[in-house]
């Protein structure tokens, strides 16, 4: 008679399987809560058509997938059991921004415009921003900064300039020392998508930002010794022309140049009149005329 090991060992006090650990995951619980919403009906399990009878059949609903996954032979976008689909759109309405009020208690309608921008960025969204303002000399925004503020700004600017200068000098050295990393920063991150199906159900996160230390012996990542074509030269200086005007009859007559006819050479033997050879305004020498 053989004795089994299970008969000798005592019964287990607790059982745990992979499925139970998966169900305890907050992401999975958020997905279950999303699927239990009012806008999503109960999932009805039904078998898809068998192989060979799926000609023209396309899974459209969650029920078409049954208890399995997607069908890779069907070239359409498929989301079996809601995987890969933004279920937040079904549970709640579209992305809405919380109502905010200013110091006077009025609604801030510029909250939509400021989505995606930093809080320090100046965005003009009110009608009063387009109207000119009459500032008095006693207004605080019109006054010049005091000496303490000027000294602080000058010191901060000089500090940044020195850092950039020393970085340029250190980059030219053959051996560089490892740069001291910046201090650790803690950032409070609030995602725009709030819901159980996103961010593991967390409304806020604390992010620890640490700068990666750079290896001083790391070779350069980019080639900078290549010849770069020269930039185009500066445009030529503009030539200031006088405005165009019509030419007079006298100017047109002055531009008429008589043909160049030599008085001594006539290789082709062409005969010209005296007026054509000497022009009308030429005075004939008396000895030259007597020679003829």
UniProtKB/TrEMBL annotation:
Coiled-coil regions listed in the entry: none
Domain of life where this protein originates: Eukaryota
Transmembrane parts of this sequence: none
Gene Ontology cellular-component annotations: spliceosomal complex
Region of interest (Disordered), residue spans: 1-25, 224-245
Domain SKI-interacting protein SKIP SNW: 185-269
Record InterPro entries: SKI-int_prot_SKIP, SKI-int_prot_SKIP_SNW-dom
GO BP annotation list: mRNA splicing, via spliceosome
Pfam family, one: SKIP_SNW
Family of the protein in this entry: Belongs to the SNW family.
Protein name per Swiss-Prot or TrEMBL: SKI-interacting protein SKIP SNW domain-containing protein
Native source organism of the sequence: Wuchereria bancrofti
Organism phylogeny: Eukaryota, Metazoa, Ecdysozoa, Nematoda, Chromadorea
